Request: fold
Amino acid sequence: MRATEHCYIVTDEQILNGESIIKGTRTPVRAIVETWRLGVLPEEIPSHLLHLTLAQVFDALSYYSDHQAEIDTHIARHRIPDELIGPSPVGVGSISPVMLRRAESRSKSDVTPCERVVSTSFRTR
Reply:
């Protein structure tokens, strides 16, 4: 395990091929960043990822600020192509009502492909 300049962020070649993760977990920094990009406030992220503390979330976002190109590369590498994403059956997966409202309240041009899937797949029918 290799420490970084951020106290909660480490890399370990044995975990996710050395991608930056939250120390003591297998949670990649990219997971925090992607959740934040969906419109979830940093203060709300620990209620979605229960094993994380608020300090870990803020440190991950700070790490992202210092290493955007690295994290964006990991995000792009793990992105699922739109054509492989289909609607999920009702009740499958979990998304908070807050995330759904935020995704639906944005104009269509501001909505990412991931948010389009969220707003159409998890809506109560």
